[in-house]
Design a protein that fits this description.
- This protein is an all-beta fold and 64 residues long.
- It has one domain.
- The chain has no helices and five strands.
C-alpha cells in the first residue's frame, strides 16, 4: 500500500501555487484539475521512477 503525497506546483494560467495530492503507487498519472484560484483546467502529469522519485508537470489544457 502506498501513502498519498502532496506536491506544490504553479498554475500555468495565473501562476498561483497549488497543492496537489498524488499517489506514488502509480507509475504514470494524467488528469485534469481546476485551479483553486482562477478555475481554469490544468493538465496534471505525474511519473514515478523505480526509486520512487516523482516528476510533476502542469500545463494548460489548450496547449498541444
Amino acid at each position: 500500500m502506498s501513502l498519498l503525497q502532496t506536491r506544490l506546483g504553479d498554475c500555468p494560467y495565473c501562476g498561483e501555487p497549488i497543492e496537489l495530492v498524488l499517489d506514488p503507487g502509480l507509475a504514470e498519472q494524467e488528469y485534469v484539475e481546476d485551479c483553486f484560484v482562477c478555475c481554469r483546467p490544468i493538465v496534471v502529469r505525474v511519473t514515478t521512477g523505480e526509486e520512487g522519485d516523482m516528476s510533476l508537470s502542469l500545463r494548460r489544457e489548450d496547449d498541444v
